[in-house]
Amino acid sequence: MASPEEKRVIFRRYLDAVGLHGLAGAEAAGLHATEWYALSLLDLEGALTSGELSARTGLTTGATTRLIDRLERAGYVRRGADPADRRKVLVEPVPDALAGVERIVGPARGRIAEVIGRYTPEQQELLFDYFARAAPAYREASEEIRQAKRR
């Protein structure tokens, strides 16, 4: 059984590897890390207003506008009017462009699927329970870090 210090090191290495994977995917797609994250958000959530995208990425409104401009020029997203409020802009992913991203990262993601596939169905349930609970906790922790930086 690993000691508390060994567990801390193992977990840190895991987190670093996940972060490195995201950076490598962004680089391979010709994107910055924040653009990669924004594109992933749009793929998972669907269309978001520029304000929602700003809040979710932690970027200022000006930086978010520049991010959307870059993603739009690269063909990953398009802007449209929000049908509920024509004053707002909706940003939505371009489906065919996302297929290109999946071709880039799909083979590497297959390695992770192989690792998860080695676990029993019960163990996989536990892993996915962790993923489901940890993701919002990491988002909240990220916001706490941003808030502390602003103080």
UniProtKB/TrEMBL annotation:
Q: Which GO terms describe its biological process?
A: response to stress
A single Gene Ontology molecular function, please? DNA-binding transcription factor activity
Q: Indicate yes or no for the key word Methyltransferase.
A: no
Domain of life assignment = Bacteria
Keyword annotations of the record: DNA-binding
Stretches assigned to the HTH marR-type domain: 1-136
Q: Which Gene3D superfamilies match?
A: Winged helix-like DNA-binding domain superfamily/Winged helix DNA-binding domain (1.10.10.10)
Which one Pfam family would you cite for this protein?
MarR_2
Name of the protein: DNA-binding transcriptional regulator, MarR family
Organism, per UniProt? Amycolatopsis australiensis
